[in-house]
User: Fold this.
Amino acid sequence: MQKTEKPRPAASANRCDPTQNGARLFAVRHVKGRTLMMKISLPSLVATLIAGAFFATTTLGQAPDDQKKTPLAKEMSGMARDFRALRKMVNDPTQKDAALALVKDMEDHATKAETYEPAKTKDIPPADHDQFITDYKKQIDGLIADFQKLDDAISAGNTADAAALLDKINMDKRDGHKKFNADNH
Assistant:
C-alpha cells in the first residue's frame, strides 16, 4: 500500500497567514522548546517601538541629573574626569605630554570653579557667608597650587612625587566636598 499525502490547506485558509489581515504581523516565540506564533497588531508594534526609542534616548542619552548641574558642578565633573585619566597615566613616562595637558585642563577647570559659589552657600547663615566663601576660595587656590606642583613633578619625570601629589589632591577633594558640597550636609 502506498501512502498518500493529505493535501495541505491553501495558505489563505491558514489562520497564521500574514496576507489574511494586512494589519497583523506575527512574532515567533520559543518557550520550553516549543515554538509559538503570536499575532501582533501593526499599531501596537509601532507604538512599542516609538516608546522604546523615546525611553532609550531620554535615559541613555544623558545622565539623570544633567539638567540639575550647576556651572560649578560641571567644572568639578571636568576635573574629576581628567583626574581619573591622569591617575592611569601618571606612572608612564611615555605619556608625559598627555599628562601635562590633563594637568593644565584641571587647572583651567579649577580657575573657572573659583569664580562660582558652592550651592551650599544658600544654607549658610548670613553672618558666616563671607567666611564660607573665603574658605572656599582658599581651598581652590590650594588646589591650583597643587596642580602647578604636579605639573612640575611630571615635567621633571618624577613619577613618585606626582603620584604622591595625586593622593594629596584626592584627600583634599574629599575634605573640600565634606565642607562645601550641599549634598554632604
